[in-house]
Amino acid sequence: MAKLIVTNGDSAAANIRASGLKGRVLEWRDMLHDGPVPASDSLEIVSDARADYIAQALGLDFGEVRADFAQRDGLISAHIAYSDVELWFEHDLFDQLQLIQLLSFFAREPERVGLRLMQADTYLGALAPERMPDLAPAATPVTSLQLETGRTAWAAFTAATPEGIAALAAGHMAHLPWLAPALRRLLAELPALGSGLSLTQERTLRALKDGPVSAGHLFGVVTGQEEAQFLGDLGFFLRLDEMAFGAEPLIAGLPHTVRAVPTFTPSDPPGPEQAGYRAYASSLVRLTPAGNAVLRGELDHAGVNAIDRWLGGTRIAGANPWRYDRVTDQVIAPAMALS
Q: Are residues 172 and 76 in the same domain?
C-alpha cells in the first residue's frame, strides 16, 4: 500500500514531489488565521465556511474553492487506503493551525495505523528538493498525547471566545513544541489595548513613518520581522485593506481592495491578467493623519473603524471587540475593555 504525505501548500508539496520521496502528496491549503472557522468536527461544515470566506475575501469563485476543499477532504477521509500517513508541517502559525485541524480529525478516527508526524523548524517551501529526504527520518509515530492536544487546541481555536487559546498559549508542550508560540502570535492579531491595531498592523504603520512604501515592499519589511513567518502576500494585503478602506483610513494609496485583483496563474514574462496584482503591489502606501494619530495613542482603530473580522471562532467586531494586552499577555473581554 502507498504512503500519503500531507503538507502545508503548493511550494512544500512541489519540493517533496521533486525530491524522489515515494508517496502521494496532499496540499492542505487554507489560511486558517483569517476568517471564520466553525466549531465543528465535520470537515464538510468547516470547508463550507472556509470556502465561502476565501471566495468573498479574495474575489474567487466559490464553486472552484469548494471543489478544491472537497477533493482534499475526500482524500484525507480515505486515509485507510494508505499504509502510512505522514503529516509534514512547519513551526509557524499558518502550519500549526493546519496541524491541529488534522490532529483533531485523526483523534476522532477509529483507525489511524501508520500515522506519523514530521515537525520542521524551517520553511519546507524554501528548501531545495534534495533536502527533503534528510527530513524523512524525523517523522515519528503520532502519540495519543499529540492527538488529544490537537483536539483540545482545535476546540479552543474554534470557540466563540479566545480564553482557551490564551490558556494553551501560556503553556509549553514538548510534544508539539511550536504550538504555544504560534498561538501567542495568533493572539497578537487581536486589537491591542489603546490603538486597536493587530501586531501586523502596528508594524505596518511604523514602517511607514519615514515615508511611502510600495505595498509589495511593505509586505517584505513587515513579515521579515516575524520570528516564524506565517502570512502570505494576500493575507497581508487583507490587513492593509482594513486600514485603508474604513471610515477613518489609517493609510492611503491603494488603488482598490485586494478582492478586486483578478485571479491568475503566474507566468514569466507576466501576462496581462497579472496587471491588477502588479498595480496593487506597486502602489505607494502612505500614512494618513488618522494613522499618525493611532501611532501617537490618540485614536483607536478598532473603535473608529468598527472592525469586523474573525480569529478562529471568535468574531472581532464593533467598537468594543475582544482585545489583547501584549504587555501582560492577557486577552481582554469586551465589557472589561470599556472600563
A: yes
pLDDT tens, position by position, 1-57: 699 999 998 999 999 999 999 999 999 999 999 999 999 989 999 999 999 999 999
Residues 172 and 241 in one domain: no
Whether this model's pTM surpasses 0.70 = yes
The CA radius of gyration of the chain, in Å to the nearest whole number, is 20
The torsion of the CA quartet 118, 119, 122, 126, rounded to 10 degrees, works out to 40
The helix (run of H) or strand (run of E) holding residue 96 is helix 93-107
233 shares a domain with 97: no
Residue whose C-alpha is closest to residue 210's, from 284, 283, 286:
286
What is the Cα–Cα distance from 272 to 46, expressed in whole angstroms? Answer: 35
**What single-letter DSSP state applies at residue 314?**
E
The DSSP output letter for 175 is T
Q: Does 60 share its domain with 98? A: yes
Contacts 24+ apart (CB under 8 A), 15-19: 15/124, 15/125, 15/127, 15/128, 15/129, 15/131, 15/132, 16/88, 16/124, 16/129, 16/132, 18/129, 19/129, 19/130, 19/131, 19/132, 19/133
Query: Using an 8 Å Cβ cutoff, are 313 and 38 in contact?
Result: yes
Please give the tally of structural domains in the chain: 2
Q: What's the Cα-to-Cα distance from 247 to each of 150, 242, 255, rounded to whole Å? A: 39, 10, 17
| Domain final residue, candidates 162, 187, 212 | 187
Report the Cα 145 to chain-centroid distance in Å: 24
Centroid of chain to Cα 10: 15
* Tens-digit pLDDT profile for residues 298-310: 999 999 999 999 9
Report the run of H or E that residue 55 belongs to, with start and end: helix 43-58
Q: Where are the beta strands (DSSP E) in 60-114?
A: 84-89
Q: Are residues 208 and 182 in the same domain?
A: no
Structural domain including 167 reads 3-187
